[in-house]
Design goal:
Elements lengths: L6 E3 L2 E3 L3 E3 L8 H9 L4 E3 L16 E4 L2 E4 L8 H15 L6 E5 L4 H12 L5 E5 L6 H4 L7 H12 L6 E5 L6 H10 L4 E4 L3 E4 L2 E2 L4 E2 L6 E4 L4 H14 L4 E4 L5 H10 L3 E4 L2 H5 L2 H17 L14
Length: about 300
């Protein structure tokens, strides 16, 4: 019998565990729907804020041998406009049975709450609260994801205005990710996306003799992030029983299975799309199914968290 890739994410049935990660694929409804048509188990919109943002000028996203370095700067059309985009996206995804995750961010807990109120009107299946972007610290200060108390404040503010599924996007930069996750859970989180990009980091163009990004620094993602993301997911799921979308370096079926064994329920796919496009979802599903068959695994639930021993 062919292995079953289906997963239950906080009560949502996904055809497979692969989730389009926030940010990498833009904001257009047509683009998000295309990811669902191409085989994504769920899709996540680009993070939006109450006030529109232009973000950082190009070059803002560049490949390197370990993955990507990016400093897009949270460019978005604003939550009011994003709400309309999400409505169009839902109309295209629902016939496919592909859930929609709406990602938000803000500079204060109140801004997060207002953004949540606006995007909630589009009836996404999950709201993802991005408290962990490393590329705009000079504008917003230290990310909320680095402090349990601050993470709890944001979570509580959003929970006060939104009763649906609420996932908090965590940072690999904190030395206390379990404490941050526990504080968010106590404040009302239903699950987590772990993790956001690492950094910020820097790469230098040796010909131009200056940093390659216009912002000089940016977040690190792709295969180089996988070992750190695995450790984060392992620690979170060892301490808490809430679902996690394991994100960071999912570029092969083997990486996907490792993340499930670390405890992830679903798997965020971002940087792998940069060079491959939406064909990556079919490839990852095929590789994971082949690996599961070789290992005698009928369903992902059989090995989820098995690395905990």
């Amino acid at each position: 019998m062919e292995p079953n890739l289906g997963v239950n994410l906080a009560g949502l049935e996904l055809h497979n565990p692969f989730v389009l990660a926030s940010g990498i694929w833009g904001s257009a409804a047509e683009t998000l729907i295309r990811a669902g048509q191409a085989g994504a188990g769920a899709v996540t919109s680009k993070s939006c804020s109450v006030v529109p943002r232009r973000g950082h000028p190009n070059p803002a996203v560049l490949p390197w041998r370990g993955g990507l370095i990016n400093a897009v700067g949270l460019a978005n059309p604003g939550a009011a406009e994003e709400r309309l985009i999400l409505r169009d996206t839902q109309r295209g995804l629902r016939p496919l049975g592909v859930p929609l995750i709406a990602s938000i961010f803000g500079g204060t807990p109140d801004e997060y709450a207002r953004a949540a109120e606006l995007v909630a009107q589009a009836e996404p299946d999950i709201i993802e609260v991005n408290i962990s972007c490393p590329n705009v610290q000079n504008e917003f200060g230290v990310p909320f994801a680095l402090d349990p108390g601050a993470a709890a404040q944001v979570t509580a503010a959003v929970r006060a205005v939104y009763s649906g599924r609420l996932f908090i996007k965590l940072s690999p930069n904190t030395p206390a990710i379990t404490a941050v996750a526990r504080a968010a859970a106590q404040a009302g989180a239903d699950g987590f996306t772990a993790v956001n990009t690492l950094g910020p980091g820097m790469l230098i163009d040796t010909h131009a003799r200056m940093p390659i990004l216009s912002n000089r620094i940016g977040g690190i993602s792709g295969p180089a992030l996988l070992p750190i993301a695995l450790r984060c997911v392992y620690e979170i799921t060892q301490a808490l029983s809430l679902p996690v979308i394991g994100t960071g370096g999912i570029a092969s079926g083997e990486a996907a299975l490792q993340m499930v064994m670390a405890g992830a329920t679903a798997l965020g796919v971002g940087s792998a799309l940069a060079g491959e496009g939406t064909a990556v979802f079919q490839r990852l599903s095929a590789e994971l199914r082949t690996l599961m068959a070789a290992e005698g695994i009928a369903a992902l639930s059989e090995v989820r968290g098995c690395a905990h021993g």
